[in-house]
Structure formats: C-alpha cells, structure tokens
Design a protein that fits this description.
Rossmann fold, seven-stranded mixed sheet, 242 residues, 8 helices, alpha/beta
C-alpha cells in the first residue's frame, strides 16, 4: 500500500506545488545555459578559421590599420612590455600590413632589424612601401610557407605572433621549425583571442585557448616566463627558449 502524504493542508499543498512548478522552468533554463556555455568554450581548437590571405588585399589592409584598433590593441604598451632595445632582432610572424612590424623597427633602430613574415606576398608589398615612406631601412620582408617561417639561422631575439596562431594548423611543428632561427634564450611572444570572448573575430571552436598555447609551446621547447593582462580582448604570453 502506497502511503499518502496528509500533513499539509490542501491550500498549503497547492501553494507548495505552484512554487515548485514556477522553479522548474528557471532551473531548466539555467541548465541549458550552462550546457551552452560549456559547449561554446572548447578546451582545444576544433577547426581552422577561413584563410586571411583569401580576403581582398584592401580589406586586409583596412582591418589591420583601422584607427580604433589602437584603443584595445595598445601597440605602444605592447612594445614597451617587450622591452625591446637598439640592436634587437624581431620576427613578426603573420605581419600583415605591418601594424606591429613598423613599430618594432623603430624600437630596435638604428642597429636592430625586423623580419616581417607572412604567407601573402601582396600584403608584404604594401608593408614594404609603407616602410620606405617612413624611412624604416631596417625592415625586411619574408614570404614564408604555411608550415615554416623561413627565418635566417641563429638570427632572432624575439619571435612575435599577434592574431596569428589560430591560423597555423600544426603549431608545435611550426615552432620547432622556427627554433633554428632563434638565438640562445630567444623569446616567443603570443597575443591572441580566447575562445568565446566578447570581441573574438571567429567562433570559439576556431580559436586557440590560452592553456593550449602554453602546452604546445612547451612541447616545442619553450617555457612560459611572463604574462601581461592589460589587453582587454586578448591574452599576451611570453615564452623563452629552453
């Protein structure tokens, strides 16, 4: 025989039932939202974003050089954080229009050098023209391969990536091919968007989480030595060659 609960008066019982029913939809919404959040922030990159070099050149230049970018990219603070000095050699991987390359060239002048590296020869042509207009004679462009930056051997103090790593398919192998170009104790700096960020340019599954960046760099022979948190939209990690 199934016992019957009779301890609650009828009016109170109805009120209790109504309260439970009103809470069930809220609980369901919370569980769905939690599941959606978990799904939207994968622990590793799931697929590659569209190739930047397939966009029209003028679109790439406009995107890279847009004036409002300075408010959140904070390029001068980035250069200052990297503590570049006269004589340093920097490789800017995925240099694009040269937003950072040209600033680096000024920071390491007169005796330093910047290698502006990109797979797209057309945007490097634009960068070279702009560098000449600005009198930056210490900036050299390199048309790289998708799996190899083609850096000169034992030449570079700092390899820099901004908004680039998520476009590289096999990053650990790429970093390993990069190693011969780095000097002893050379540094690797990576700035990129975390998956699910408010201003991320791609869906979460096409971006690389911070933890994955650290893991892949470690596998390639780098150790994390610094992290800056002043960029509102991106993580900023600095590694050193072991």
């Amino acid at each position: 025989m199934i016992p019957v609960l009779k301890s609650l008066p009828e009016d109170r019982s109805r009120m209790t039932c109504r309260r439970l029913l009103t809470k069930v939809p809220a609980l369901a919404i919370f569980l769905v939202a939690a599941a959606a959040c978990t799904h939207s922030t994968p622990q590793t990159q799931q697929r590659m974003p569209p190739r930047t070099q397939d966009r029209p050149l003028q679109d790439r230049i406009k995107s890279g050089e847009r004036s409002e970018r300075e408010t959140w990219q904070k390029p001068d603070e980035v250069v200052q954080a990297l503590a570049l000095k006269n004589g340093d050699v920097v490789a800017d991987i995925g240099a694009g229009s040269g937003y950072f390359s040209r600033r680096f060239a000024g920071a390491v002048a007169p005796d330093g050098k910047v290698y502006a590296v990109d797979v797209a020869a057309d945007v490097l042509g634009y960068l070279q023209q702009e560098a000449e207009k600005e009198g930056l004679r210490n900036l050299v462009t390199i048309v790289s391969q998708e799996d190899d930056p083609l850096l000169p051997r034992d030449a570079v103090d700092l390899v820099f990536f901004c908004d680039t790593t998520h476009h590289i398919a096999n990053r650990t192998d790429f970093y390993r091919r990069m190693l011969p170009g780095l000097k002893q104790h050379g540094r690797l700096a990576i700035i990129d968007y975390p998956p699910g960020g408010d201003h991320a340019p791609h869906p979460p599954e096409q971006l690389v989480p911070r933890s994955q960046v650290i893991s892949e760099a470690g596998e390639a022979g780098f150790k994390l030595v610094d992290e800056f948190r002043f960029l509102p939209r991106q993580y900023f990690l600095v590694f050193e060659r072991r």
